[in-house]
Design goal:
Length: 701
């Protein structure tokens, strides 16, 4: 697709915000030479991958795995690595800057030749020889001189430092202070390619291998809240040197008490305190759950009323932090993850609390919890999700982040006080599902091709329709994954934001404070955005603005609650949107459902009754169908896993004319030659992927 346009300011915005550094002064002029290379986009991406492996930012396996997934899902490898937090945008950016477009580095080195002659390190003749070789093989001048044994790394370092008016310090004679290493996390040192050596009040001195590194030190300075002073040094592999320096003190066993001894604060500087506080805020809040447990302030008024209540809560909190209850709760959560559940219901009933998992859209009873530990279990979940455990009369929303196996899970927790006690539902958001591509959705090849093509359009509106829980969000994310986060500026408006998408600005809709779809969309349109995802079109205002956005050069994705794709057109018409506007804005409507798949472990062929075959609309000649007879893997349901069923109404010129002339939606669908969800699902019944009963449950419902 398009060539890399990394200099475009908007593509950096996510990262900038995350790193807390301003970008305003960094105009496009700061990065020249970008567009000069003649390599194709994919070639350059490939080289960037190799460069990342070479620099040990990622491993060969990680790159291979991402490339393999790119082949099956269509999601660019770097997009996956960014999502998995293996690389940051700045790393990728640097790779493109230094490895793929080394023009500035080349210029640097030709100037280096002259400096070395001036320093009398080499002769004019030696320089001429080296330049001749450079013309032949295009290698860097410094490396050529090094290879010929004419200069040492130290001499080159000194020459570069002179050229750039920098200090020079020899690597071997410049150790790193423990304090400096503690202030700069190792991954930050690697990312910026610096070796921290010492701190004097608010000045951090670092060794660098290339003068160019200084360009990014302004960012580091904001990040660390210190002035950063760069000193040139002679080092061949700085990544390796960073590793060594960070490993060394750690093996000597530096703990926190040692830090206090070695770094006695000269005077209580308010700035330092402020910084420490900030630092602490950045750290993952491991201790917070304990703090929450012993912090009764929030519920104080209520507690005063019932003294006994207070003791009871303390007791429960104590119980909730006891090993058996903690173990029980983590077993429940892990069990849900292992069985592929999407939700956990803790349902207070008489005489016991039921624990149920929602698997493939259906609830299953998995265990019950005795009444006497029920409050402790509920409290434990509330502590984990940072909710107020003293509040059990009002609904609360919280959130848990948890690593289970290799995966990171985000769990949304919602409580609802009922007559029998608090009902708690935990919604498991598997972050890896963010990385599904269009090819993972279960589309028929023909539809897959069509949707991919539609998503590639630079503007227009694509609507995904279906009831709640039909997988609309997954489809939209898959579509977004197809877009290039580096060259396009992408903003989503969501209610709620459930998954974090790297490289994409996500806005949380909050009607209570006036952050509505319509308002935010209006504001977003003033922000030079290429791709907009509007979580849902619920009202006329949002519909109007979204349509205007699609007509003014934006690609707009959104969802509508309709039964099928053609109905979206009548819904928009009923909202009062003029037909000619719908016709010009709309690119396609996708209708979808999720259906359960027949369990592979217990799939059996059987002679299907005639009336069932007729109800599904299969030809009368059909004799055999498939279903799962039930086994352990599928909890005796006969179904395991789900797949999407889609219908795509593409707005062809003919369809466009018909929409504009107010033709009935049935006729529009016909002229669009749309294969309906029923058609697609029937196909899957025939292939034995979906059971006949499931067809009737979902499609004819
Ligand atoms: Zn089975």
């Amino acid at each position: 697709m398009a060539a890399w346009k990394l200099s475009k300011g908007t593509t950096r915005s996510y990262n900038d915000r995350k790193m807390g550094r301003p970008r305003s002064g960094d105009g496009a002029g700061a990065r020249p030479a970008r567009k000069e290379a003649s390599m194709s986009g994919s070639e350059r991406q490939r080289d960037a991958g190799e460069a990342l492996v070479k620099k040990e930012v990622i491993t060969r396996e990680e790159l291979d795995k991402a490339r393999a997934h790119e082949k099956t899902s269509g999601i660019p490898w770097y997009r996956q690595l960014i999502q998995h937090k293996k690389i940051s945008f700045s790393v990728l950016d640097d790779i493109f800057r230094y490895e793929i477009y080394p023009k500035s580095v080349r210029e640097e080195h030709s100037a280096l030749g002259r400096t070395l002659v001036e320093m009398k390190a080499i002769s004019e003749e030696q320089l001429a020889e080296a330049l001749k070789e450079q013309k032949r093989n295009g290698r860097l001048l410094g490396n050529i001189l090094l290879n010929r044994g004419l200069v040492t790394g130290r001499t080159i370092g000194i020459a570069l430092s002179r050229q750039h008016n920098m200090e020079f310090a020899e690597l071997e004679k410049t150790p790193s202070d423990r304090e400096a290493l503690e202030v700069v996390p190792e991954n930050v040192a690697r990312r910026y390619q610096i070796i921290p050596i010492r701190i004097e009040s608010d000045r951090l001195s670092v060794l660098v291998a290339h003068p160019q590194v200084r360009e990014s030190l302004a960012d580091l300075s904001v990040l660390l809240n210190k002035r950063v002073h760069a000193i040139m040094t002679n080092v061949t592999n700085i990544t390796e040197e960073i590793k060594i320096r960070y490993r060394m003190p750690r093996s000597k066993g530096i703990g926190l008490p040692a830090k206090k001894e070695t770094a006695p604060p000269p005077k209580p500087e308010p700035a330092t305190v402020e910084k420490k506080r900030k630092e602490r805020a950045k750290e993952p809040n491991l201790k917070k759950e304990i703090v929450t447990a012993i912090m009764p302030e929030k519920g104080a008024p209520m507690i005063e009323k019932e003294k006994n209540g207070k003791n009871r809560f303390e007791e429960i909190a104590e119980q909730a932090s006891g090993v058996p209850v903690m173990k029980l709760v983590s077993t429940i959560i892990e069990g849900a993850v292992n069985s592929g559940a999407t939700d956990i219901h803790l349902d207070p009933q008489d005489p016991e609390m039921r624990v149920r998992y929602r698997i493939d859209g259906v609830l299953h009873d998995v265990m019950s919890i005795p009444q006497d530990i029920e409050p402790a279990v509920i409290s434990r979940v509330k502590i984990m999700s940072e909710l107020d455990i003293t509040e059990n009369r009002r609904p609360q929303d919280g959130h848990i982040s948890m690593d289970i196996g290799d995966m990171e899970y985000d769990i949304r927790v919602a409580t609802l006080p009922t007559y029998l006690g608090e009902r708690v539902v935990l919604r498991l958001l598997d972050q890896s599902s963010v990385l599904s591509g269009i090819r993972d959705l279960g589309l028929e090849p023909e539809d897959e091709k069509r949707l991919t093509k539609l998503v590639e359009q630079p503007y227009g509106m694509i609507l995904v329709t279906g009831p709640t829980g039909s997988g609309k969000t997954t489809t939209l994310y898959a579509a977004l994954n197809q877009k290039n986060v580096m060259t396009d500026s992408i903003v989503t408006l969501e209610d709620p934001v459930e998954y974090q998408l790297s490289g994409i600005n996500q806005v949380q809709i909050d009607n209570d404070i006036g952050v509505t779809f319509a308002n935010t969309l209006r504001a977003a349109l003033r922000q030079d955005i290429d791709v907009l995802l509007v979580g849902e079109i619920r009202d006329v205002d949002t519909a109007r603005i979204a349509i205007r956005a699609a007509m003014t050069g934006h690609l707009v994705f959104s969802t509508l609650h309709t039964n099928d794709a053609p109905e979206a057109i009548s819904t928009l018409r009923n909202m009062g949107i003029p037909s000619y506007l719908i016709a010009s804005a709309l690119t396609a409507v996708v209708g979808q459902r999720l259906v359960r798949k027949v369990c592979d472990q217990c799939k059996k062929e059987y002679a299907a009754p005639k009336n069932l075959i007729k109800a599904i609309g299969l030809p009368e000649s059909t004799k055999k169908l498939f279903k799962g007879v039930g086994c352990q893997t599928c909890y005796h349901t006969g179904n395991k896993g789900r797949t999407g069923i889609f219908e795509i109404l593409e707005v062809t010129p003919e369809v466009r004319r018909m929409i504009a002339s107010d033709a009935p939606v049935e006729e529009i669908a016909k002229s669009g030659k749309m294969k309906t969800m029923a058609d697609r699902c029937r196909q899957k019944v025939k292939q034995g992927i979906v059971a006949p009963e499931e067809f009737l449950r979902v499609i004819r419902a």
